[in-house]
Amino acid sequence: MRKAIAGILLTLTASGVQAALPVIVTSPDGNIEVVIDNAGDGPHYTVKLDNHTFLEPSSLGLKTSLGDFSDNLTYVSHQNTQQDEHYELMHGKVSNVHYQANGAVITFTGKDDIQLEIEYRVSNRDVAFRYRLSGPETLTRVKVLGEATTFNLPDEATTFITPQALPETGWMQTKPSYEEPYTFDAPVTDSSANGVGYTFPALFKNAQHGWLLISETGVDSTYVGSRLGESNKQGVFPLAFPQEGENSGIGGTYAAMSMPAVTPWRTITLGSTLAPIVETTVSYDLVEPRYAASQDYEMGRATWSWIVWQDDSINYQDQLKYIDLAAKLNFEYVLIDNWWDQRIGRDKIEKLVDYASDKGVGIILWYNSNGWWNDAPQTPQDKMNTSPARREEMAWLKAIGVKGLKVDFFGGDKQQTIQLYEDIFTDANDYGLTITVHGSTLPRGWERMYPNFVTSEAVLASENLVFEQDALDKHAFNATILPFTRNTVASMDFAPVFLNDRLSKEQKSGTIRKTTDTFELATGILYFSPVQHFGLTPNNYHEQPDYVLELLKKMPTVWDETKFIAGTPGDYAVLARKKNDTWYIAAVNGEDKKKSIDVNLPMLSGKPVTVYYDTAKGDTKLQKATISNDGNYTFTLRPQGGMVITTQ
């Protein structure tokens, strides 16, 4: 079971006079500096890394039903704090975390003796802050209508961010669901594609000084999911709340809270290289589990007929084939997708669960989240949207031995929708079920907050490779974007690794794959998801050489360490991940040209390794090598190709 060792919290009270401003908080290593002040237009902050400005003066404050707490505030006092905590993640990109940060809690007073506290924590790679609103005992509730929070990027910064979708657009009016393409090195002053800002996480390049990633964590049923609004001509991005039309207009766009009201954390990760961005654990450093796991949940790999064979595969015989494939590959799970209740039936689902169990394979079943907030016709419907229906269904699922659920089509970030997520996670834990969500929002610390939550789509995922040739043509390019953006702060159910030349059952039609086999194998390591749904098909087992099958049989989905090695968005990406004593190095080429890559792999210095590489035909070959004592290694990536290096 995951265990956390309580952090050490030291507080030193400063003098409660105006002269105490500005408050300066530095990281433990002294490289990051945050300055909080209270000018005539309200409290604001700046952020520097290595004496270079990464955020220019940016606003702070809350706008609420009790008043506007973003200006006309009086400084009261501040307390300096320190955090020093060890904790374990049971299904993360790392397993053991040592979180150290310096901080401060700055208290201001506004109208009617209401106090606004702004808490900052600054580690060696992350800045985080949140608000706490308190007042007289007679004030028991508040609506947070919005935040004055802004992020003021330097003029020369450029963006790698994905636009927010308009509500009730896309497939059967199911958006927004975080499935839009990324900008690429665009000016910070550019308007978004839809005119309503951008989703988290948001990556920026600060000219030659480095990178910063903005996101949030700790969002639960007491708040809304936020985003970045449109930037102005000075590159200032406001923090924005949900759009009115999200979730078919159900609920307000504000957060209704009891007093004292505490907001989620806003996070800023900084680095002169992309290493802090890739390796950050800030999403988990700032949250705690909301309940204990009812059991030790098993993570792992899953086969999945729908992704290539589509709806016609949702039948009893095809599911037997995918269960057999999972068993042959030593995979832990099979996902049975939409329409199973109609096309297979509940009685035969029970038989499939028993058949899979005899082979050591667990079953995950798909559900529509819907009550009435989208037009998606897929069933089962009306089983996850209310507690009585949900708990009755989950009791049946537990009784027949189902291991987890994939719940789809949420369509927004309003408080009511965040409440639905939390209710599904909590009820599922009572019945020993894991939860994957699709058509969904970004997880915000949920892997630690809700121990049976596994992964979320929230990305322009692999289903688009099947639907659109253009998506498949850009697959390699996007694989050099996602490890530095979406996948940095949360698990990502992209569903990788396709070995069919054409993405269809018979391979006589369908989209045509441009990436190499080794590229595809590398994405199984490059993309992090505790349950990884693979795009493999039964024919792949007979077509691929034994050494490829052995790699798939042993490929982990949760990790003890994750390291950035090399790469930049749009060019190439090289990441290293470790499970127990085995290192896996994954490299992908985002361009349609051959490249020679020089990397340093200190963890492999002087060690023998197994290298999986591409031939000119695009299939995978294996060779043995020894890394030099200085850890330097040079390899070639073929166009839209990849490489995997392991120490096993």
From TrEMBL:
Name the SUPFAM superfamilies for this protein: (Trans)glycosidases
Report the leader peptide range: 1-19
Q: Which UniProt keywords apply?
A: Glycosidase, Hydrolase, Signal
Annotated Glycosyl-hydrolase 97 N-terminal domain residues? 25-289
Instruction: Give residue ranges for domain Glycosyl-hydrolase 97 catalytic.
Output: 299-459
List the InterPro entries hit by this protein, alphabetically: Aldolase_TIM (IPR013785), GH (IPR017853), GH-type_carb-bd (IPR014718), GH97_C (IPR029483), GH97_catalytic (IPR019563), GH97_N (IPR029486), Glyco_hydro_b (IPR013780), Glycosyl_hydrolase_97 (IPR052720)
Q: Enumerate the spans annotated as Glycosyl-hydrolase 97 C-terminal oligomerisation domain.
A: 558-646
**Pfam families, per database record:** GH97_C (PF14509), GH97_N (PF14508), Glyco_hydro_97 (PF10566)
In alphabetical order, the GO MF annotations are: hydrolase activity
Q: Could you identify this protein by its name?
A: Glycoside hydrolase family 97 protein
What is the scientific name of the source organism? Salinimonas profundi
